[in-house]
Amino acid sequence: MIDEPALWQLSEQDVAAVVRARTAAVHRAYAEMLDAVGVFDDRNIAAGFGYRDTASWLSIELRLSRREAKTVVSHAESATPTTTPLGERHDAELGLAAAALRAGEISREHYDVIHGTFAECPDSETAQARASAQDTMVTAARQLRPDQLRRLSTRILAYWRETQPPEPAADRGTCNRFEYRYDKQGWLRFCGHLDPETAATLDGLFGPLAKPCPNPDGSPDERDTAERRGDALAEIIALAARVDDLSVQGGERALMMVTVTLDDVRDQLRNALLDVPGCHAPDDLRRLACEVAILPAMFSARGEPLYLGRTQRLASRAQRRVLAHRDSGCVFPGCSRGPRWCVAHHLRHWSAGGATDISNMALLCAAHHKIIHTTEWEIRLTGGLAEVLPPTRMDPDRRPIRNLAHTLGPPRPQTATRSRAPSRIPGESPWAEAS
């Protein structure tokens, strides 16, 4: 390969050849990356690191956007062979397109168009029909631009729709979803799905609020279950709207009563702590404990109460305001979530004797709160400011990182009536980029 400084000495044809060769190398490099991500995902390595899935690992440790991380994982799943739990190997869904990508014959954009087309392919299409359509698209991709290939994709999808019965909407993953629209009368029409933990919380709220309520004249409640739940949801929304100082999330979310016998404690029975909706491991319970008030009740084998623990473990409203001023929001690197979307996390867990003090708390959004509890990332306070220690696989020296997402840009002028957290880390440029 010719050195970069000598490019200016080349002829026009030679420079064009270099551009062509390096562009093909970029395509091949993306295919090689998909191969590695495919193995990473097939072996579920992210779970061993404490992450929910491969996309979360890519987003947190490689700093890809959530959309890009999901796209990479989806591409990798279709481009690489898979192994079943019984050890059986299955060919890649888009093996032909992946081979063209590895050869540098098509680009990432071409592959994305082909992948998107087959994501909408009806299940009733035969393997032979799929292979024929893939061959057609790969052959066209070697000659067409991605925008031109999308026109072919549109024709193929139209043909499938004409020859196949309507397909139900495809499942779009395990993330929480809420879709809504207003009808002509101004009513809100919505649909979606929630993760088990959030669903259990909502179901617990519906319990007392959606019970049949007799009318003032003593007649029975004529509302059906769906109507009662709709009115209960309206009450929940009205209650949320009345919360004082929405800029600082405050108030107890719930009261969790964990009841175990002394024998259970001695025997370290894990299931005694896991009878909580949405909890599948002790780490889940510990993470939830950061957001709820815990009243431990320990009983002897005969049922006599032995100990009632502390209940003043949540940050007070005043403490949350101090944390909001100090942290400006979630302290995880790159996160721009403000204080209202965060919980006060105990750096030393409450269950391990940690105090509900400003010096032992930092703000974390829900997603990064889970990351801190389930992975090797850690938080510490240095000079009164929160900094995060990355896993050793990212940095063997575990050099601390401070979140600059809340302070990027020119420093704002100070005023006599309003104080704020330092606009930047001392000694760093106000235009410093997050790292």
From TrEMBL:
<dbReference type="GO" id="GO:0008270">
    <property type="term" value="F:zinc ion binding"/>
</dbReference>
<feature type="domain" description="HNH nuclease">
    <location>
        <begin position="318"/>
        <end position="370"/>
    </location>
</feature>
<dbReference type="InterPro" id="IPR003615">
    <property type="entry name" value="HNH_nuc"/>
</dbReference>
<feature type="region of interest" description="Disordered">
    <location>
        <begin position="391"/>
        <end position="435"/>
    </location>
</feature>
<dbReference type="Pfam" id="PF01844">
    <property type="entry name" value="HNH"/>
</dbReference>
<dbReference type="GO" id="GO:0004519">
    <property type="term" value="F:endonuclease activity"/>
</dbReference>
<dbReference type="InterPro" id="IPR002711">
    <property type="entry name" value="HNH"/>
</dbReference>
<dbReference type="GO" id="GO:0003676">
    <property type="term" value="F:nucleic acid binding"/>
</dbReference>
<dbReference type="Pfam" id="PF02720">
    <property type="entry name" value="DUF222"/>
</dbReference>
<comment type="similarity">
    <text>Belongs to the Rv1128c/1148c/1588c/1702c/1945/3466 family.</text>
</comment>
<dbReference type="InterPro" id="IPR003870">
    <property type="entry name" value="DUF222"/>
</dbReference>
<protein>
    <submittedName>
        <fullName>DUF222 domain-containing protein</fullName>
    </submittedName>
</protein>
